[in-house]
Amino acid sequence: MRLKSKYPKKIVYHSTSEWDGQTGGTATVSAGRKIIYDTPEAYGGKGTGICPDELFVSTILGCLNNTFLDFQRRFEMELKSLVLRGTATSAFDGTGYRITGVTISGEVVVGEDELETGERCISLMKEYCHLTRSIKDCIPFQYDISIREG
Hints:
3 helices
């Protein structure tokens, strides 16, 4: 299905990374918002900030969340709760690490008589999240998201 977008046809995102002088750094994005990241202790870091791999999973969850909410608003569906959990598995392949898969689980709670619309929103979320669409050919995704009326 081809969707007509009400959003800009193209958008460019910017970020700056600055080393903290130790084992991590600070990313600065639009409007001066900052993210502190660090190397996990298991890899010789201090582990005082967010591990970039955790940020990767969080980024995917955020994109899925926002995509779901876009469709929820379009359908004017009553949403009571949306919880997503993500896991990325990284394995050493003999030459370096590679993310071998991402699993997304969670629960959606919708209003009375909204199950069908909620299921449609989940399906559209998985189909149209631009981050997962961009990397699905190199990283497999598994989904286990339940839905119920609440």
